[in-house]
Design a protein that fits this description.
With 341 residues, the protein is mainly alpha-helical. The protein is built from twelve helices and ten strands. The chain has a three-stranded antiparallel sheet. Strand 6 and strand 7 form a beta hairpin. Helix 2 packs parallel to helix 4 and helix 5 crosses helix 6. The relative contact order is 0.13.
């Protein structure tokens, strides 16, 4: 395994330390000290640890997922270490993201033993998610504990699942396992995201005001090349606040560090490196002395809000830095040429 530590700047080293110091003995990575752990953000934290070369900590995080996985392959929405905090539902993009975390770890470490150990966990998770895919391609966003599938789909959630499917397919191919059904499901999901907008946000208000609906199809590898550049250009002035970062929602004066980092990775994937570097430079003001990062900033009030420093935000910073500067062998993880099919 490559020694990544010398490639980390002091700022990024302190960011990695912040995440690892908050990891619990069980392997869970809570949002912050005393906070919840949810499967998606926990996996994001694992990916940040992997970028920083904290491989033992990343494996502990994978084991936490394996230890908490339900018999149906899913995880509940939120935990307090080993206890369920929110057992009302399992969110499909949360469940699928375990595949992204495992494949990202393997891309950095080439640790095939760990890939094989946790592949059954990923396979069970992906099969749970695909049970919620509709003939029209979209995947329902959640399964309610009492009422069953929540029969609508999210562009951001399905884009995240699209990337997770690609990672699961890559892992299966690496291990010599058949995955034809997963490949078919990925194609079907991609067609829905690109060509069937009416299949999303059918039962609630459109989520188009959220920046993630704008850039996640690029981040997931679904939209690339000139189409990605054009998609970014179309709403850049709507979502990007000059010299600060990316708004979470177009009509609110609030930039968030995690969304900005994900937009940075989408810019790199689209070949917009100059924009990516400018965004990364702009967010440096939001790091604290302990290595953590504020969730966001309300620029009309000159206030950091909420008063939280999430581990998943810190992980997003590490992933963005990797995409920009090549810290790890997974530097191109979100680039369009790093796909299974």
């Amino acid at each position: 395994m490559q020694d990544i530590q010398p490639l980390l700047t002091p700022s990024l080293l302190s960011t990695a330390n912040y995440i690892e110091q908050l990891q619990l003995p069980s392997g869970a990575v809570p949002w912050f000290a005393g906070g919840i752990t949810d499967p998606w953000d926990h996996t994001e934290a694992i990916m940040g640890l992997s970028v920083a070369g904290r491989f033992a900590a990343a494996r502990r995080g994978l084991q936490w997922l394996a230890d908490r996985q339900r018999a149906d392959g899913a995880w509940f929405a939120a935990y307090n270490d080993s206890e369920v905090v929110d057992g009302t539902r399992a969110e499909t993009n949360f469940v699928a993201y375990a595949a992204t975390g495992l494949w990202h770890y393997f891309q950095i470490t080439n640790d095939k033993q760990t890939l094989a150990k946790y592949f059954p966990m990923v396979a069970a998770a992906i099969n749970f998610v695909l049970a919620q895919q509709q003939p029209t391609g979209e995947i329902y966003w959640a399964v309610d504990t009492k009422t069953g599938p929540s029969k609508d789909a999210l562009i951001t959630g399905c884009s995240s699942i699209f990337k997770s499917l690609d990672c699961a397919i890559s892992a299966a191919m690496e291990l010599g396992n058949s995955c034809d059904q997963w490949i078919q499901s990925k194609v079907l999901l991609g067609e829905a995201l690109l060509h069937k907008p009416e299949r999303f946000d059918r039962t609630w208000e459109s989520k188009a005001r959220y920046s993630m609906d704008w850039f996640y199809p690029i981040l997931s590898g679904l939209v690339n090349g000139d189409a990605a550049k054009q998609r970014l250009a179309d709403k850049w002035d709507v979502f990007v606040e000059p010299k600060l970062g990316c708004r979470c929602v177009s009509d609110q004066p609030w930039v968030t560090i995690a969304e900005t980092c994900e937009l940075i990775m989408a810019c790199v994937a689209a070949g917009e490196q100059a924009k990516a570097h400018e965004l990364f430079d702009n967010i440096q003001r939001f790091q604290l002395d302990d290595g953590s990062w504020w969730t966001g900033y309300v620029f009309t009030d000159d206030a950091h809000w909420p008063d939280e420093k999430p581990t998943w935000t810190a992980a997003a910073v590490l992933l963005a830095a990797d995409a920009l500067t090549g810290i790890s062998p997974a530097t191109g993880f979100f680039s369009p040429n790093n796909t299974a099919i």
